Amino acid sequence: MANTLKEARAELALANRIAANEGVLDTFGHVSMRHPDNPNRYFLSRSSAPDMVTPDGLIEYDLDSQPVREPGMSQYSERVIHGEIYKARPDVMSVCHHHSPAFMPLIATSTDYVPVFHLGATGGIKPPYWDQHDEFGDTIMLVRTPEEGASLARALGQHRMVLMKRHGVTITGTSVQDCVYRAVQTCRNADFQVRALSIGKIASLTEGEVRLADEITGKTTGLTRSWNFWAMRVAKAGGIPAAPKKTRPAANPRKRAKSRRR
User: pTM for the full model?
Assistant: First the structure.
């Protein structure tokens, strides 16, 4: 986990790249992070493909999703998804909004998400659906206004995840790593669920199994082990550019000796 703001920003940039590399995010979609030192602020990338996010491209927002300072770069139109959830849920430290292909068969048919294996417990049982049309009628299907973002946050309630009809998924976490872990594992569960349905009837984890399986998330080495593995896969795929270290060239010992003699 990050210890400094600089490390936290680097972690968020990596989170976007991991989510892209693991098939959660495509050209669209984003992962954000509540400011570790100021709960009334959050960080989100400039408008960018997720596998191109860098620490320098992160923008700091207030909870009304207004940039704290002029960013001088393009911004995501759906940033209110993040701001309104942070506003409604003080316990949420990270948010991921995505349109993973694994989920789209469920989204297109309004089929409930069902945890079919233990890691799928990270999404809960039958997380709520949100239909933008119910409150706002015909739209361009993007969540761009504070009212739309607040409506989505109300539908999320105290759940970890909300499914968005004809759109995608928004999932939350208690940290950046926790959020990405839940996003990846729920996408895998959705894929397994859809494939299993083509064979026959599926069996869900019980409520007790979901609660117990979810409680150990972050309490064992599983989350850290997964993060390190996914980070390694990003590195193998091309990595994330690191800011060059500014170091002074080593002084020539002969020159130092001459200087002392003078």
Answer: 0.89
